[in-house]
User: Fold this.
Amino acid sequence: MLIFLVGLSSCTHLAVKEEKQVASQEPYQLEIPAGFPSMEIPPDNALSAAKIALGKRLFFDTRLSLDSSISCGSCHIPGSAFSDTVAFSQGILNKHAKRNSPSLMNIGFNPSFMAEGGVKSLELQVLAPIENDDEMGMTIGAVCDRLNTDEYYRKAFRLIWDTAATPYTVTRSIAAFERTLIGGNSKYDRFANGDSSTFTSDERNGFILFNTERFNCSSCHSGRLFTNNSIENNGLYVSYTDNGLFRLSLKQGDMGKFKVPTLRNIALTAPYMHDGSMRRLEDVIDHYDNGGANHANKSEFIKPIHMTDDERKSLIAFLKTLTEES
Amino acid sequence: MLLRLNNITLCLACLGFFSCREDFPAFELVEQEPKIVIHFSLDNTSESFDIGSAFSDNQGWNLQLKTLKFYISDVDLISANGRVQPLTDVELVNFDDDQDGQINPFRQGYDYIIPKDNYSKFRFSLGLPSLVNQTDPTLLSKDNPLSTNSGMYWDWATMYVFIMLEAGIDTNSDLIYDANIAFHTGLDTLFRPENTYPITFDLPAFAKDTIHVSIDWNELFPTGGENEIDLGEVPFFHANVDNEALEMSRRFTENFIGSITVKTND
Assistant:
């Protein structure tokens, strides 16, 4: 049995506690918060504390990028719910990603990944930013070669996977860590779990409005994760430069459709939309209040709302309760 | 006395000879099955060119080839009596055989040992069948054509590029390749199965022959016709960025098939 010490670093806003923990290869049981769905874990990537620790180390290792300038954690910042604070994250050599970095909090509950939902495996999603010329600019093979020159990684992979760093073991390790990024500790969660005194009147009003047919937010941003994971056109543009799901399906009806993101930690994940074009939460509210742009594929749920100022204030107050508190 | 001695000597010699004969193995002729080489080339009118080659095409462009890679699958020979001889499920044809002085596992040509027979057809699919297109590349070793080492995996879609062609292009007619053309096609809809070509060779034991598969650059980018691709107007696309790119990918794929001629050494 391998036992080695793991230090988990603290993060400003989120549910990563600072503690020293002895990591082992015994199976690791995730704590799924009350009200959350179950998480499917692939049989070939069962969790262990050792594997998670290895994955975490890789996640924050800049050597996974061509010029060793960025890591996964550079664009998925812990203090921003593992999203970024800019519209397009900076990649290697001063390049920039082509889409806004989504939050990785609760990512393990998602059935699909990437903005158009084209990747069905969290393990394989790891390849995408690593091999993107505008992001990390490497090949997974070259990443493995680098890792295998490092004595720590050589030992760790050998002990955990009984082999060297390979495309398989690297992707599985990082995915294992990502699956531990679980929230469930927000003011809303306390409210939803039965503590009705938690909310202010504004927050309560906002919660009610959120779920009305008139506002229709919960048609897509549903459940405890505040997403139904469908792929929708939210009327962001009349004409899209990024075609979204179309580039996978080649169907005109999928032009401009993107995955419905979670609203959990929405107060921390600005800027918004697939292209980070909306800087403030208020801009997003305005967009939906106006009913969005007239695109042929716009979701039927998006219609002008004509909010009052009080309703707008309540809605924003409610959305802010979705922020993890520890 | 001398005769008797000679007879005795002769007998002793014979005994010695016959007692040793059992140590000599019988000589057997072992038939070696024939070998076939499938070799791809990219041609322009009458010359072939490789990675780094500079040439002019019939649209008047000066070009320098940088990359040409494509998947072939379900590669078979078919004998005159209809027997199908599979050669390989999947190969990655890569014109850049020698990368940084190291032999690349993915090459411009591959050879196969096959049963002796009279073969009349060569058949292959361009691209990957749908199920193969969903392969997890991380499960495969580096020398597998579907591994991440191939450089042909679309990570964002978890599927493969079928054809990747890139070249420098001289837009100012000054022999400086100041821009690039790039064609990356893929998607299940662009899989082109069972392209069959007549060949005539009868391969006995010990024989070796080569099937030359030639791709004509000028047929890849024809001027005029329903599959016209004008490099000046559409030099760069991925298959699925938009409708125009999809149409160009379709044309490019059709042209790729149409540009192929197959010959043997006979």
